[in-house]
From TrEMBL:
<dbReference type="InterPro" id="IPR011284">
    <property type="entry name" value="3oxo_ACP_reduc"/>
</dbReference>
<dbReference type="GO" id="GO:0004316">
    <property type="term" value="F:3-oxoacyl-[acyl-carrier-protein] reductase (NADPH) activity"/>
</dbReference>
<dbReference type="InterPro" id="IPR036291">
    <property type="entry name" value="NAD(P)-bd_dom_sf"/>
</dbReference>
<dbReference type="GO" id="GO:0051287">
    <property type="term" value="F:NAD binding"/>
</dbReference>
<comment type="function">
    <text>Catalyzes the NADPH-dependent reduction of beta-ketoacyl-ACP substrates to beta-hydroxyacyl-ACP products, the first reductive step in the elongation cycle of fatty acid biosynthesis.</text>
</comment>
<feature type="active site" description="Proton acceptor">
    <location>
        <position position="143"/>
    </location>
</feature>
<comment type="subunit">
    <text>Homotetramer.</text>
</comment>
<feature type="binding site">
    <location>
        <position position="78"/>
    </location>
    <ligand>
        <name>NADP(+)</name>
    </ligand>
</feature>
<dbReference type="GO" id="GO:0006633">
    <property type="term" value="P:fatty acid biosynthetic process"/>
</dbReference>
<dbReference type="InterPro" id="IPR057326">
    <property type="entry name" value="KR_dom"/>
</dbReference>
<feature type="domain" description="Ketoreductase">
    <location>
        <begin position="6"/>
        <end position="179"/>
    </location>
</feature>
<dbReference type="InterPro" id="IPR002347">
    <property type="entry name" value="SDR_fam"/>
</dbReference>
<feature type="binding site">
    <location>
        <begin position="143"/>
        <end position="147"/>
    </location>
    <ligand>
        <name>NADP(+)</name>
    </ligand>
</feature>
<keyword id="KW-0275">Fatty acid biosynthesis</keyword>
<protein>
    <recommendedName>
        <fullName>3-oxoacyl-[acyl-carrier-protein] reductase</fullName>
        <ecNumber>1.1.1.100</ecNumber>
    </recommendedName>
</protein>
<dbReference type="Pfam" id="PF13561">
    <property type="entry name" value="adh_short_C2"/>
</dbReference>
<feature type="binding site">
    <location>
        <begin position="12"/>
        <end position="15"/>
    </location>
    <ligand>
        <name>NADP(+)</name>
    </ligand>
</feature>
Amino acid sequence: MGEQARTVLVTGGNRGIGRSIAEAFIAAGDNVAITSRSGDAPDGALALAADVTDSDSIDKAFAQIEEKFGPVEVVVANAGINKDTLLMRMSEDDFTDVIDTNLTGAFRVMKRAARGMIKLKRGRVVLISSVVGLYGSPGQVNYAASKSGLIGMARSLTRELGSRGVTANVVAPGFIESDMTAELPEKQQKTYLDSIPAGRFGTPDDVAATVRWLASDDAAYISGAVIPVDGGLGMGH
C-alpha cells in the first residue's frame, strides 16, 4: 500500500462482501466512501445514497467524494442483484433488470471514475464478478451473463487506459458465507461443500483481502486478470 491515504469508492458497500471490502480499506487507512440504496455504512466510511442504475445519482456521489477527499483513485464495482429463475420462466424484465444493475451499473461507475483517473495518471478498477460468470449455473442466465460481461469490460478498459497507470481487474468469488448461504437447506449446503476442493465456504474477508491487494502498489503490473476466490471450485473457468 502507498504511504498516503487514497480515495476509495465501493458500490454496494453497506452489507456482505461490499461491506468487508470497505472495512479492509478503512483498516488500511484509506478514505473510503460507499454507495448504497439504503444509506447504511460501516463505521468510518462516508455513506452516500446512490443507485447504480441512475447516472445522475452516481455523478452526485462522485462530486461529494471529490469535494471531501479528492479524486477517486480506487473504484470497486460491487453493487449487484439477482433474479434467479429458469430460462423458460424468466421474463424480459428479470433479464434486463439484472443486466442494468450488475453490468451497465458497473459501466456507469467506471465511466465516471475514469475521468479523475486519467487526470491523475493512476487508478485501480476492481469489478466484482462471480464464479458463476464462467462456470454457469441453472436459473442464472441473467446473472451469469452480467457477471461474465464484466470480464470483457475490464479487459477493454485495460487496453484503453493501461498506458495511463490505470489497472482494471476482476475478482470472481465462489460460495461465500452470507445470509443467503446460511438459509440454504443443509443437504444443498453439503452438495456445494462437496464440490469445493477447499472443503469450506469462503468468507467476505477472503474476498476483501484479494481486492485490497489488487488495488495496492504490489499489483501495479496486473491488469485484465480474473482472480478467482473460490476455494478451487471454478478451476480456471
